[in-house]
Amino acid sequence: xxxxxxxxxxxxxxxxxxxxxxxxxxxxxxxxxxxxxxxxxxxxxxxxxxxxxxxxxxxxxxxxxxxxxxxxxxxxxxxxxxx
Length: 83
Prior knowledge:
Layout: E1 16-17, E2 21-22, E3 29-31, H1 32-36, E4 61-63
Antiparallel strand pairs: 1-2, 3-4
Protein name: DUF1540 domain-containing protein
InterPro entries: DUF1540
Organism: Heliomicrobium gestii (Heliobacterium gestii)
């Protein structure tokens, strides 16, 4: 499987790296409706247990792996930052 490159421009995320890169080992992309109805701890580590959802367009999706930089919540989701 080819290595994936995840690009992100949310500079205040714990997983943001210069060059607009996401360095999270895992991410969870969900519909806005799903994301707004779930607590922050529902993230990539639970992906295999979640049912697939649909979104009407790109603007109806969100990254559930966001963790504010310097918030002290970097290990809440159990997804470790790549080094």
